[in-house]
Design goal:
Layout lengths: L18 E4 L6 H12 L3 E3 H9 L3 H8 L1 H15 L6 E3 L8 H8 L4 E5 L2 H8 L13 H15 L2 E4 L5 H13 L17
Helix pairs in contact: 1-8, 2-4, 3-4
The protein binds shikimate-3-phosphate.
The site of shikimate-3-phosphate has 10 residues, from loops.
C-alpha cells in the first residue's frame, strides 16, 4: 500500500473521481461503489459499463471476437478518460489496474481503495459467470496473487472484504474519506473500531 499523498498536479482534486475502487473479480467493487455513490450523493461510474456503452457489445463478446489484448487497449483508453471525471465514484474492472499507463495514472490519485478478496471467496461470489471470461483463465490462482500484490501496491487503502458485506465495506470507505490523509497509512481493517 502506498502512502496517501496530497494533491498531485497530474490529478488535481475537483478534476478526478472522489475515490477509485480496485480489486479482483468478486471483490464487490460494483455493489460497494453503487452504495458509496448513493451515500455521497455523487454518480457511480463503472469502467466495464463504460466500455460496453462505447462499444455497443458485451465484454464477453469483445474478448471472444477481438481477444484480450484488444480489450485491454480499449479498457485503458476508457479508464484514462474516466480518471478525469470529477466527483464520481469510479470502479475499475479487475484487470484495468494492470496496464502500466493506467498504473501511472492511479499513482497520481489520492484515494484508491483496494477491496481485497481471497480467491476462494471471489470464486464463491462470482459462481460460474459467463460474462466474466477471465474466470476461465488457466492460471487463475497465479493471476489472483499477482494482481492482489499490484492492487495493494497501487492503493492508498486496503480493505479485506472476505468477511464483510457491501454495506460494511461502504461504511469503511466513508470513514476513510472522512479521515485526514496523514492518518490513513494503516490498512483500514487494522484500525481500532473499524470492524
Ligand atoms: C476482468 C474483470 C471484469 C471485466 C473483464 C476482465 C479481469 O470486471 O473487466 O471481464 O481481467 O479481471 P470485474 O472485475 O468487474 O468482474
Amino acid at each position: 500500500m502506498r502512502t496517501p499523498t496530497g494533491p498531485d498536479p497530474a490529478c488535481p482534486p475537483g478534476q478526478a473521481p472522489v475515490v477509485v475502487l480496485l480489486g479482483f473479480m468478486g471483490a464487490g467493487k460494483s455493489a460497494v461503489g453503487e452504495r458509496l455513490a448513493h451515500a455521497l450523493g455523487v454518480p457511480y461510474v463503472d469502467s466495464d459499463d463504460a466500455i460496453v456503452a462505447d462499444q455497443g457489445r458485451s465484454i464477453a463478446d469483445i474478448f471472444a471476437t477481438d481477444g484480450e489484448p484488444a480489450f485491454r487497449a480499449l479498457e485503458h483508453s476508457v479508464v484514462a478518460r474516466l480518471l478525469t471525471r470529477p466527483g464520481v465514484v469510479l470502479a475499475l474492472g479487475g484487470g484495468a489496474a494492470m496496464h502500466p499507463a493506467t498504473q501511472a495514472l492511479l499513482r497520481a490519485h489520492p484515494r484508491t481503495v483496494h477491496l481485497a478478496v481471497s480467491l476462494s471467496v471471489a470464486l464463491a461470489r462470482c459462481g460460474d459467470d459467463p460474462s466474466r471470461p477471465m474466470l476461465r483463465h488457466p492460471e487463475l490462482a497465479a493471476l489472483h496473487s499477482l494482481r492482489t500484490a499490484a492492487y495493494s501496491e497501487l492503493a492508498t487503502h486496503v480493505i479485506d472484504t472476505d468477511r464483510l458485506d457491501a454495506d460494511q465495506v461502504c461504511r469503511h470507505i466513508l470513514q476513510v474519506l472522512a479521515d485526514p490523509p496523514t492518518q490513513r497509512s494503516q490498512p483500514d481493517g487494522n484500525r481500532p473500531g473499524s470492524g
